[in-house]
């Protein structure tokens, strides 16, 4: 086309050298490219932008905010320049090769940027969808960006050296060690992100606890190389994504899905206060509404057993008897069963642990009907407030190591005793 253009000028009576004709052809290509750029950006894109601003659909605004169509238009302009160069310039010339090579690099760059814009726009759209909030889309999209960047770099190098991309890929084997060193964290993060997503191990919004990294709070972001956790003290902990695969962590999502949070706390009972219930104790405890059915049924069962076996009950070692500790366990279990804020469909028990020098542990194992932290703590505190207050009614007391106040009272009592003895002797 350049040669025909020169011949046409000569036919019109103009004499131009090949260099002058080349400059004029390049100028013509530039003018056409500028005109196309003006049409795309000043007319078409402005019109589409106004339409998107009027639209209530989120995806249209997201695409324009991320400049998707602008980058697509620039990529198309590169293709048009490539085609024009093939039409106007002489074939197999260095100028043609340079213009087409630059056009190819231009197109690859803006195709890559357009892909980035598309992924960013999809991420923005997904943030407003409740069904997609738990998916680690940011990490997956970053993985796609990394792969796309590597592919574009290979294609760009191939265009510069004029060789097939397959030849470059075959030479990457020798650079594997360098690539693994440079891209170690992204590669490990990519593999970890795929495993986390495929095995449904972690989602945005999950409560994650990982003491080795000081993390205890909600997951707010799952990226390619890092996972961000907002701790309960409002600090942010950043964890390498691959650490979630190599190390152990606790995900509290199951608790949130069930809707019940576990109470597992014990009180220590002084072993010296455990004894059999007397008739007076039985009469007094029957006034408790939660204990009356239990005491009546249990008393009947024990009396029948003792009569059948003809035990001599004058000895405390004979027969079966009720204890204040066992009765308190039954009372506490009934107390928990009658609370509306305790889940009755989940495990509910009051158990006795191994006794030791610190007393007899009595443990409450139950689930609250809420997972909210403040409500959970209030329910748990209310239960144990009641336990501490009702223990004396059963003749039980907490085991507590003596304090300085106890020693002071003991010393004062001993002094008073000695003074009274001296007074009596005088």
**In what range is the share of β-strand residues?**
5-15%
How is the biggest beta sheet arranged?
A: 5 strands, antiparallel
As residue ranges, the low-confidence spans are: none
Output the structural class.
alpha+beta
Query: Given the structure, what is the number of helices?
Result: 16
Family: Belongs to the MscS (TC 1.A.23) family.
Protein name: Mechanosensitive ion channel
Subcellular location: Endomembrane system
InterPro entries: LSM_dom_sf, MS_channel_C, MscS_beta-dom_sf, MscS_channel_2nd, YbdG
How would you describe the overall organization of this protein?
The chain has 426 residues and is of the alpha+beta class. The protein is built from 16 helices and 8 strands. It has helices at 2-11, 18-54, 58-65, 68-88, 94-126, 137-161, 165-171, 176-182, 184-198, 243-246, 253-258, 279-285, 292-309, 324-337, 373-390, 404-425; strands at 207-210, 215-222, 226-231, 236-240, 250-251, 262-269, 349-352, 360-367. Helix 1 packs across helix 2 (18-54). It is found in: Endomembrane system. The chain crosses the membrane at residues 20-48, 68-89, 95-119, 140-160, 166-183.
């Amino acid at each position: 086309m350049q040669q025909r253009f020169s011949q046409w000028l000569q036919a019109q009576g103009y004499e131009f050298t090949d260099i002058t004709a080349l400059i004029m052809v390049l100028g013509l290509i530039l003018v056409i490219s500028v005109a196309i750029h003006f049409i795309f950006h000043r007319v078409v894109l402005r019109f589409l932008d106004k339409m998107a601003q009027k639209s209530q659909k989120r995806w249209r605004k997201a695409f324009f905010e991320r400049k998707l169509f602008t980058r697509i238009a620039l990529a198309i302009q590169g293709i048009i320049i490539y085609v024009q160069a093939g039409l106007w310039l002489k074939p197999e010339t260095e100028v043609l090769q340079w213009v087409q090579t630059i056009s190819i690099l231009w197109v690859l760059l803006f195709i890559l940027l357009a892909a980035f814009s598309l992924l960013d726009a999809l991420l923005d759209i997904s943030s407003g969808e409740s069904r997609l909030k738990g998916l680690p889309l940011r990490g997956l999209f970053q993985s796609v960006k990394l792969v796309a960047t590597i592919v574009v770099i290979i294609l760009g190098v191939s265009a510069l050296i004029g060789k097939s991309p397959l030849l470059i890929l075959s030479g990457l084997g020798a650079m594997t060690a360098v690539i693994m060193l440079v891209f170690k964290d992204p590669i490990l993060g990519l593999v970890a992100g795929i495993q986390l997503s495929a095995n449904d191990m972690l989602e945005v919004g999950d409560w994650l606890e990982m003491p080795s990294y000081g993390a205890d709070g909600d997951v707010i972001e799952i990226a390619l190389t890092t996972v961000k956790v907002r701790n309960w003290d409002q600090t942010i902990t950043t964890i390498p994504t691959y650490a979630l695969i190599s190390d152990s962590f606790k995900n509290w999502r199951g608790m949130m899905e069930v809707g019940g949070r576990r109470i597992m706390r014990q009180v220590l009972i002084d072993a010296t206060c455990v004894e059999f219930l007397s008739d007076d104790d039985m009469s007094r405890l029957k006034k408790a509404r939660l204990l009356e059915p239990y005491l009546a049924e249990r008393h009947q069962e024990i009396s029948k057993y003792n009569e059948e076996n003809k035990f001599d009950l004058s000895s405390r070692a004979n027969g079966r008897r009720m204890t204040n500790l066992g009765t308190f366990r039954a009372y506490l279990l009934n107390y928990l069963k009658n609370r509306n804020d305790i889940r009755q469909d989940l495990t509910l028990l009051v158990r006795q642990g191994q006794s030791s020098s610190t007393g007899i542990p009595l443990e409450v194992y139950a689930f609250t009907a809420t997972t909210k932290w403040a409500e959970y703590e209030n329910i748990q505190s209310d239960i144990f407030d009641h336990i501490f207050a009702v223990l004396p009614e059963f003749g039980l007391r907490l085991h507590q190591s003596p304090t300085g106040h106890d020693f002071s009272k003991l010393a004062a009592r001993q002094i008073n005793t000695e003074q009274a003895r001296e007074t009596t002797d005088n």
